[in-house]
Model the fold of this input.
Amino acid sequence: MDLGIRGKKALVCASSKGLGRGCAEALAEAGVDLILNARSAGPLEETAESIRSRFGVNVTAVAADITSEEGRAMVLDAAGQPDILVTNAGGPPPGMWTDWDREDFIRALDANMLTPIALMKACLPPMMERGWGRVVNITSQSVKSPIAALGLSNSARAGLTGYVAGTSRQVAPSGVTINNILPGIHATDRAISLDTGVAKSQGIDVDTARAQREATIPVRRYGTAAEFGAMCAFLCSQHAGFIVGQNILLDGGAGNSTL
Ligand code: NAP
Done:
C-alpha cells in the first residue's frame, strides 16, 4: 500500500534502537525524511547511516536527551517544522509503590508525560497552519492494564493519555491527528532488561523468564519493532486522517478484555 507520505519530514524521538527505530524504518520505507534522536551518538549515527543506505531518504541525527529542555531545544532546532512527530523516551524503572517519592514521580512525569506534551506544543502550530500533520505517541499497554511494578509508568502515561484525548479533538479540525500506540511486550533492549529483573528476583535464567512471559501472550511470542513501526507508519499515512485520539494496543492479545 502506498502510504501517500513520500517527501514528508518526521521527527522520531528516542529512535536509535527498539520501537522508535522500528517507527523510523517504516516511515523511511514510505519515503519520509527523518530527524532521529537518542542520547548515545555512536549507535544513533549507525542507525542513521543504515536507514540512509537502505531507503535513500535524508536522515539527520541529533544526540541529545529528549527529556531535558536543552536536549529538546537541540532536536526541535534541527527538525524545523516536521509534518510528523513520533514521541518516545526510555521508560521509568520498576519498583514497589513504597519506593517512590515526589522526586521519582516528577522525573517520570517529565520524561513520559511533559516531554511529549512539550514536543506537541512546539510542533502542532506549524502543522495546523499547513492543514496537515500526524502525531503518534509511544505509550504502553500499562495505560489499559496496569503493570504493578511499573507504577511510575502507569501514572505518567495515564496523564499523557488524558491530555491526548482532549487535545486531539482540538487540533483535528486543522487536519492534524494525534494518536497513541500502546506496546505490549516487544523484543527490544527494554524487554531484555525487564526479563533480567524478573530472572534475578525469581532466581531463574533470562531465557526461562522470557519463556514464562511468552506463555502468557495468546500469540506466544513477543512483538517485533518492525510490526510496531508498520502500525506507526499507517497512523502517519494519508489513509489515517479519520483516526483521532485513539489508543491502539499492540500486545498479541495479552490484555484480556472485550473492548
Ligand atoms: P529500547 O529498546 O531500550 O530503546 C530505547 C531508545 O530510546 C534507544 O534508542 C535509546 O537510546 C533512546 N532513549 C532512551 N531514553 C532517551 C532519552 N532520554 N532521550 C533520547 N533518547 C532516549 O526501548 P523500547 O523497548 O524501544 O521502548 C520504547 C518505549 O516504549 C519506552 O518508553 C518503554 O517503556 C515503552 N514500552 C516498551 C515495551 C517493550 O516491550 N519494549 C512495552 C511497553 C512500553 P539512548 O539510550 O542512546 O538514549
About this structure: The pocket of NAP is lined by residues 14-20, 37-40, 43, 65-67, 88-91, 138, 140-141, 183, 185-186, 188-191 (CB under 6 Å).
